[in-house]
Design a protein that fits this description.
The complex is a heterodimer.
Chain A lengths: L13 H11 L3 H14 L29 E2 L11 E6 L14 H11 L4 E2 L4 E2 H4 L2 E6 L7 H17 L3 E6 L5 H8 L6 E7 L18 H5 L10 E6 L6 H10 L2 E4 H7 L1 H12 L3 E9 L21 H13 L4 E5 L10 H19 L16
Parallel strand pairs in A: 1-5, 2-5, 2-6, 6-11, 7-8, 7-10, 8-9, 10-11
Antiparallel strand pairs in A: 3-4
Chain B lengths: L1 H5 L4 H13 L31 E2 L11 E6 L14 H7 L5 E2 L4 E2 H4 L2 E6 L7 H17 L3 E6 L5 H8 L6 E7 L18 H5 L10 E6 L7 H9 L2 E4 H7 L1 H13 L2 E9 L21 H12 L5 E5 L10 H19 L25
Parallel strand pairs in B: 1-5, 2-5, 2-6, 6-11, 7-8, 7-10, 8-9, 10-11
Antiparallel strand pairs in B: 3-4
Helix pairs in contact in B: 3-12, 5-6, 9-10, 10-11, 11-12
Classes of the chains: A alpha/beta, B alpha/beta.
């Protein structure tokens, strides 16, 4: 022991002792758990160098809880025969302003299992009765590498699509819009139409040298069976846009519908027009719902808000109409909990998902309908 | 869409050309050659104001002759929990504080010529490209012999910061690292995230692990791997319990002895999460039981009195902060460090004719 005035020696430090002690700690339990989980989570994409990492995250910081309290599929080798799979893609490396969407999946899971139900009186649907839904947890994201994360996300969506299960992807920032379609496309026997709700056109080739959240639809519509002629973008506008993006939309002949268009023509005519275009020569339709299409009052918890967006009533009416015609899958992106207020953004995202699923059930496009419903007034 | 085609204008282009010159060419791995090394005019992470209201150096070709450059590295792609440190540089700039410290007897505006060079253009979704940018920017500043104060950003930048300056040190660099986390694993989640900077920094030939001193480590956080690597590389680790037991003065003395052994220069890496979350709530991976501000100030002042080659202040995450308190603490720590350097005659102009001090602030005798 040294007295108060002598120089310290290395042996007197607890830090030195800690390093020695670490070698002697037993770690068999930890190792066994890790190996089991690695099997459950499936092998990662090829571009992941650390082969102890998995495709679906079954390791640290797994989501606590599931979307709407449905069952969790721990062992992904057992996936099959379900109607719907909720998949978390907690990626926010593609954000150009506020990050935080990595917490979007957890927030939507948490709010949907704490409040609300799966019964919608106006639609006459009880999802518990009509659908077999599971939560497969999160794709294992590589936070600081966009392309690797894309490879993981595409592979995960493919895994679900291959088993003919309806994927609901919980984002994550909008960059995931591209790998989501990339993963789905090979399993659609024909063209995919995309209905894209957003204030931003998100169709530039790159920003800041990478395919960030301003780029998904440039790359998605490069996929051979996801042609830009079937891309319908609803809600674009405000002081937020990229001129490059609009130029590309023009060159590729995508369809852009602004908020002013909705005000002028009304929701019903917009729905009709959108359905006509998105389904033209297409076998399936995918919805990409960026929560920031709604006004920041309804969705404050988002990375790049733009005033003047849709009202939830307008949005949900449109989503129900699109759902009723049948869909191949959907994503909800850009919910950023650190900026949310009382979970209302996460709640809107979660509710939109339930409404789309309900519309698909009521339209006979997914799951089992309850027959003998009385005639509707309208 | 048709209207966009018809919009004219050369103003935007002209401004972009000028800014490209001011910001210097980007690192080679950045494919878009419109991007620059120091961010000038882009909308991503443009600095809001300057640190302490010092002058902004718009044209980077004019760097040289100043004592201190504040440089932002707004990167948070390497956070493993809460992101948000990309806003750290702005928060550190924004908080008010003066340049005069009565206890030191210094007015830094008098003693130092300081500029703010804005933010390094990082690539948010690509860690290695961001590293290339940060290292190139640090090399640019080191080559001009200006003392860099790096405003982080997450702790992954700790590696490219040292990688950038190392070639300009004619000998070994010691690193004094304040943190609750040892941050010395090879990688996590397949990349060199913020748990890895000191694994890679101490692979640099003239930044040997024998000269790495880590202060404040502890708590229930971090993989066992850190302690294995530390043991193998024989770094020096002082836990919070060590600080409690031995006291700040003896910790400082030992840290300086180890960091300076056979070294020509010492670099400080200060992770704001080394302070208890009550004082630094605005951070990505808080750990209970860390330093008190007064301990942190005393440690930093003590460490600085022998002279430093530069410093970084990392992991301030404004979305989690409360009334900018974390940023304020970071800004004060930076000033304490600069103040100690000036008072010890290690940087800038030392004030003359001051009365004798009752205690403290005197430079220690050089270690043997």
């Amino acid at each position: 022991m040294s007295d108060g005035n002598e120089r310290l020696r290395s042996e007197e430090l607890q830090g030195s002792w800690a390093m020695e002690a670490q070698e002697l700690l037993d770690g068999t339990k930890g190792k066994e758990r890790e190996e089991a989980r690695r099997a459950f989570g499936l092998e990662a994409a090829e571009t992941i160098r650390d082969r102890t990492l998995t495709l679906f995250n079954r390791g640290r910081r797994m989501p606590a809880g599931t979307f709407s309290g449905v069952d969790f599929v721990e062992d992904m080798r057992e996936l099959g025969n379900q109607d719907v799979a909720f998949i978390g893609a907690p990626y926010d490396g593609g954000t150009t302003f506020r990050p935080g969407t990595r917490f979007g999946p957890s927030a939507m899971r948490r709010i949907s299992s704490s409040t609300g139900s799966r019964f919608n009186p106006g639609m006459g649907v009880d999802l518990t009765e009509s659908l077999d839904m599971v939560d497969v947890g999160d794709v294992l994201i590589i936070p600081s590498n966009l392309e690797k994360s894309f490879d993981q996300i595409a592979m995960a969506v493919s895994y679900v699509a291959e088993r003919e299960i309806f994927p609901v992807v919980l984002g994550g920032d909008h960059a995931i819009g591209y790998p989501d379609v990339r993963g789905l496309a090979p399993y659609i026997d024909g063209n995919i139409g995309i209905i894209h709700f957003d204030r931003h056109s998100d169709i530039s080739e790159k920003s800041m040298d990478e395919r960030m959240h301003g780029s998904p639809f440039f790359h998605a519509t490069n996929i051979p069976n996801a042609p830009p002629a079937n891309l319908v973008q609803i809600g674009i506008g405000g002081w937020s846009g990229s001129r490059d993006g609009l130029k590309i939309a023009r060159d590729r002949e995508a369809t852009v519908i602004t908020v002013d268009d909705i005000d002028r023509y009304g929701v019903d005519r917009i729905i009709e027009y959108a359905l006509e275009i998105v389904w033209r020569n297409a076998k399936a339709v995918w919805i990409s719902f960026d929560i920031d299409v709604t006004d920041p009052a309804f969705a404050p918890g988002t990375g790049t808000p733009v005033p003047g967006g849709l009202l939830p009533r307008e949005l949900l009416k449109m989503m129900r109409a699109f759902g009723a015609e049948g869909l191949a899958g959907m994503e909800v992106v850009e919910v950023s909990p650190p900026y949310d207020q009382s979970d209302i953004t996460a709640l809107l995202g979660a509710q939109a998902i339930l409404e789309v699923l309900g519309a698909m059930v009521a339209g006979g496009k997914l799951g089992r309908r309850v027959d003998d419903l009385p005639e509707r007034p309208y | 869409m048709e209207a966009e085609r018809a919009l004219q204008g050369t103003k935007g282009k002209e401004r972009m050309e000028a800014q490209r010159l001011f910001g210097l060419p980007a690192a080679e791995t950045v494919r878009d050659r419109n991007m620059t090394l120091f961010s000038r005019g882009g909308w991503y992470m443009s600095p809001q104001g300057t640190f302490g209201g010092v002058d902004f150096l718009e044209d980077m070709r004019q760097l040289g002759g100043q004592d201190v450059a504040f440089v932002g590295a707004p990167y948070d792609g390497a956070t493993t929990f809460r992101p948000g440190t990309r806003f750290g540089p702005d928060a550190l700039r924004r908080v008010g504080a003066s340049w005069y410290n009565p206890g030191f007897g210094v007015d830094l505006m008098q003693s130092l010529s300081m500029v703010d060079v804005g933010n390094i253009q990082v690539i948010p979704s690509n860690l290695e490209k961001s590293f290339d940018q940060i290292a190139a920017a640090m090399a640019y500043i080191a080559e001009r012999e200006v003392f860099p104060v790096v405003l982080g950003g997450d702790h992954a930048i700790g590696y490219p910061d040292v990688r950038g300056i190392a070639p300009y040190i004619d000998g070994n660099i010691g690193i004094i690292h304040f943190d609750r986390h040892a941050d010395i694993s090879e990688g996590s989640l397949d990349e060199r995230m913020h748990g890895s900077p000191f694994f890679h920094a101490t692979n640099i030939p003239n930044a040997p692990p024998a000269n790495l001193v880590q202060i404040g480590i502890g708590g229930w956080s971090g993989p066992q791997e850190w302690f294995k690597t530390s043991r193998e590389r024989q770094t020096t680790m002082m836990t919070m319990d060590d600080i409690d037991r031995y006291g700040v003065d003896r910790i400082v003395e030992y840290a300086l002895e180890v960091a300076w052994r056979n070294a020509k220069a010492v670099w400080v890496s200060f992770d704001i999460d080394s302070l208890d979350p009550a004082f630094a709530p605005g951070t990505g991976t808080p750990v209970a039981g860390g330093l008190l501000p007064r301990e942190a100030f005393q440690l930093v002042r003590g460490i600085a009195r022998e002279g430093l080659i530069g410093m970084e202040l990392v992991e301030v995450s404004p979305p989690y902060d409360q009334a900018d308190r974390t940023a304020m603490l970071g800004a004060h720590l930076i000033r304490d460090c600069l103040g100690a350097l000036v008072a010890a005659g290690k940087l800038g102009t030392q004030p003359e004719g001051l009365p004798e001090r009752p205690y403290g602030q005197a430079p220690a005798p050089q270690p043997d």
